[in-house]
Design a protein that fits this description.
By secondary structure, the chain is mainly beta. The chain has two domains: 2-96, Carboxypeptidase-like, regulatory domain (Immunoglobulin-like, Sandwich); 237-794, Maltoporin, Chain A. It is a multi-pass membrane protein.
């Protein structure tokens, strides 16, 4: 009996193993025959599926023999259902027809560069972003793109993060989402902390380095980042993403969508929460966000409503780390008050229309509204009453002129407007013309409150010690045209007129009255040509950008001495090529600035530091990047940027406390390096796929020495650094899951101690024989070896 049972068990195992079948095939575009990468192939009843690779190939494993129903879907294509028998004999090729529904790429097409546009750009798709999206902000996800240097106040990429492109910081990088401006109208900056986990709702992202093409919002003075949010999914889906990592970092994301309902409607939603203790002491982050999109999709029209919001609470680590603590106490945080936090929320509303009129015309229009409000709270020890426009407190015979206080500095603003474009393409494709523009208004209240005082005197809770309002109207119109002169040769022109009305009224935080109004009108022309042949595109362009001063330039300077606007003349020339398994880009650039605004140490009439115009400065460099598919298992990619970034002449002012009367001493410099502009930035990426669905990646980054100010003084600099990261990605398609993806990211494998950001200031003090120069450097250290582990389950 035992032998019979044992033989029966072996038979059942054999039968079971025989019944486990694999199904392989390819998914292609029915018209062009090109492989479709990332298409979803699914067997409903058996609950098994796969996603196509870079060759359009897929394999579904562990199928039960017999009749199955196969469903194939891909964005922009009609879904395909096919009944077949498993095992399947022969080569299985599934061809998808492009959908008749209008695609959403029109939404961003007016402000994006195409393959023949004569400017320098890189487009990053959703799949590439997802490889690193384990909770860190978008700048950190872009760390390995050409000429990018990233930083993080908390040291781990969660919380306040930033990036520089070609040495230009975020106040000089134009950012749009679906063509709608994201830069703060007054500071020109982008605060990614207000958009936590936004990468989970991004379909694609394009970085244009240099002036690029005309866009909406703040002037592009170093680069632009053009973001398109998620497009529709053909089928219903659900996704749960969870990550955990060093410094008690967590990310929880839930996404779901209806797919196309009645072949016309779709609703998608995301809910996210990110938290971290940070690498720096008390540099905690508590970030929450959501994204909801509802759309109507017709053959000629798309109408879409996006609503998204981000709410952040971060413990302040803005002060940085003094140089004396770099070796022994890298995680020290100056702030010790338990609620020294930044609290802010932004709600975004976008109503977007895109459509076609006949065979030659495309249109795009959007209404938008952003409501932002929040504050940062500070404990201030022994502050003067006079600093808050308060009288001294008299108690008996004692007069008290200072006390400990807790204050909140508020920003409450509304930003709204409209952007639109219309695109004409001639029947023969010789002309491609875009007329577009936008009109936006910013209305912001700035005020400060005293919420507690050890000795209050004649004060009430939430007394406002400053209060001012600013209104800024920003309008622009542009006309772009590409004309194909002959086969492969294209001429490009782009003319933009931008006008600004900026008014402000009230009392500033330093107690000064700041009432004023400024108007600007800028003309920003761009011209270029490109030539395409045998998979190569040669291009050259000349572009002009003008930029108004920021809010602090108006409020910190005497109104009669407002700095002049900045101007940039930009030349780009290069080649883009792809041949077989090898692709590369090479370009030269010259960015020549007139009246660039920099910190010189000069102070205003109440002792606040101001920026001043320097007549001549420039950035010039060469950028190279490429990728080579060595084999089916091995791929290598690299980029390097070599540059010179110079100010021809400027005067530095240093505070002098060596005498009874405060003065400033001046020093003139020539041919110095622009601050935070390394002469070399490079990256290396190696990918190895030993087996199907397993990817091992080695990522290296080198950034050369940077100066903290514009004096080229080695005592005020950031050391060069070289970091290495390791990523493991594994994907499986178990029963009833479209996929389960596991990602492990080990950052800074070799525990490099480095600082990509900081600041400096100097002053004179009395010395034994002569006055002594004291320089204080502060740094924002990044974490040593750390990890993030994520699991994504897709249904």
């Amino acid at each position: 009996m035992k032998k019979v049972l044992l033989n029966l068990a072996f038979c059942l195992i054999a039968i079971s193993s025989w019944a486990q079948e694999n199904l392989s095939g390819k998914v292609l575009d029915a018209n062009s025959g090109e492989p479709l990468v990332g298409a979803s192939v699914w067997t409903g009843k058996q609950g098994r599926g796969a996603v196509t690779d870079e060759y359009g190939a897929f394999t579904i494993t562990k199928l039960t023999a017999g009749e199955i129903q196969l469903r194939v879907s891909y964005v922009g294509y009609s879904s395909l259902e096919k009944n077949l028998a498993v095992p399947y004999a022969g080569d299985l090729t599934l061809e998808l027809q492009p959908t008749e529904l209008l695609t959403e790429e029109f939404i961003v097409s007016a402000t994006r560069a195409s393959s023949t546009t004569p400017t320098t750009f890189q487009t990053i798709d959703k799949e590439e972003l997802a490889k690193r999206n384990l909770g860190q902000d978008i700048p950190i996800l872009l760390n390995f793109t050409p000429s990018v240097v990233t930083n993080s106040d908390a040291g781990a990429g969660i919380g306040y993060t930033g990036m520089r492109i070609r040495g230009s910081d975020q106040t000089r990088i134009n950012v749009t989402v679906n063509g709608i401006p994201m830069n703060d109208a007054e500071s020109h900056g982008v605060f990614w902390v207000n958009m936590p986990d936004f990468a989970s709702s991004v379909n694609s992202l394009q970085i244009q380095r240099g002036v690029g093409t005309s866009t909406n919002g703040a002037a592009t003075f170093g680069a632009s980042v053009n973001i398109q949010t998620d497009t529709r999914n053909e089928e219903a889906y659900a996704e749960i993403d969870n990550s955990v990592g060093s410094f008690n970092s967590w990310k929880h994301t839930v996404k779901a969508g209806t797919g196309l309902l009645n072949n016309r409607f779709a609703v998608d939603a995301r809910l996210s929460k990110i938290s971290s203790d940070g690498y720096v002491d008390r540099a905690t982050s508590d970030l929450r966000s959501y994204f909801v999109s509802a759309g109507f999709y017709g053959e000629n029209h798309v109408l879409k409503l996006n609503v998204f919001s981000g709410k952040e609470k971060t413990y302040q680590s803005w002060w940085g780390l003094p140089e004396s603590k770099l070796e022994d106490d890298r995680t020290d945080n100056y702030y010790t008050y338990e609620n020294e936090t930044d609290n802010y929320q932004q709600d975004h509303y976008q109503l977007i229309y895109s459509g076609t009129i006949g065979d030659n015309w495309k249109t795009n229009a959007a209404l938008h509204y952003t409501y932002g409000r929040g504050y940062y709270e500070q404990y201030r020890e022994d502050d003067d009453f006079a600093s808050y426009n308060l009288p001294d407190v008299v108690i008996g015979d004692s007069t008290i002129s200072s006390t400990d206080i807790i204050r909140r500095r508020w920003l409450d603003n509304d930003f709204y407007g409209a952007v639109a474009s219309i695109n004409y393409i001639s029947d023969n494709g010789q002309w491609d013309v875009v007329l577009g523009g936008g009109a936006n208004r910013y209305d912001g209240d700035h005020f400060g409150e005293i919420i507690w005082a050890r000795i209050a005197g004649d004060t009430d809770i939430r007394d406002r010690y400053y209060d001012n309002n600013a209104v800024k109207d920003d309008r622009n119109v542009y006309l772009k045209a590409t004309y194909e002169v002959s086969s492969g040769l294209n001429l490009f022109g782009d003319l933009q007129v931008r006008s600004i009305d900026y008014s402000f009224i009230g009392v500033n935080d330093d107690g000064r009255i700041v009432d004023g109004e400024e108007k600007y009108t800028f003309f920003n022309p761009k011209f270029g040509l490109s030539y395409e042949k045998n998979g190569k595109v040669w291009y050259a362009s000349y572009a002009v950008a003008n930029r108004e001063p920021t809010r602090s330039d108006f409020t910190d300077n005497p109104i009669t001495e407002v700095p002049r606007p900045e101007k940039l003349n930009n030349i780009e020339a290069g080649i883009r090529a792809k041949s077989g398994n090898f692709s590369y880009n090479a370009n030269f650039y010259l960015m020549d600035y007139k009246d660039q605004l920099i910190q010189t140490g000069q102070i205003n009439d109440v002792g606040a530091y101001i920026r001043e115009n320097v007549p001549d400065s420039y950035r010039a460099g060469i950028e190279l990047d490429g990728a080579f598919q060595l084999s089916k298992a091995w791929m290598i990619g690299a980029n390097i940027a070599l540059s010179q970034n110079k100010i021809k002449e400027f005067t530095e002012y240093i505070d002098d406390y060596s005498t009874a009367e405060f003065t400033q001493e001046s020093f003139t410099y020539t041919d110095t390096d622009i601050a935070f502009s390394p002469n070399i930035v490079s990256s290396l990426m190696i990918e190895f796929k030993p087996v199907k669905n397993l990817s091992l990646n080695w990522l290296s980054k080198y950034v050369g020495k940077q100066y903290l100010d514009n004096t080229s003084n080695d005592a005020r600099s950031l050391d060069a650094f070289f970091t290495n990261d390791f990523r493991v990605s594994y994907s499986v398609q178990p029963r009833y899951f479209k996929s389960i993806d596991i990602n492990l990211m080990v950052n800074n494998v070799f525990n490099e101690m480095y600082e990509p950001n900081g600041y400096t200031f100097s002053y004179f003090l009395p010395g034994e024989s002569q006055k002594e120069l004291v320089t204080e450097n502060y740094y924002y250290p990044m974490a040593g070896t750390n990890f993030m582990l994520g699991i994504s389950m897709k249904f």
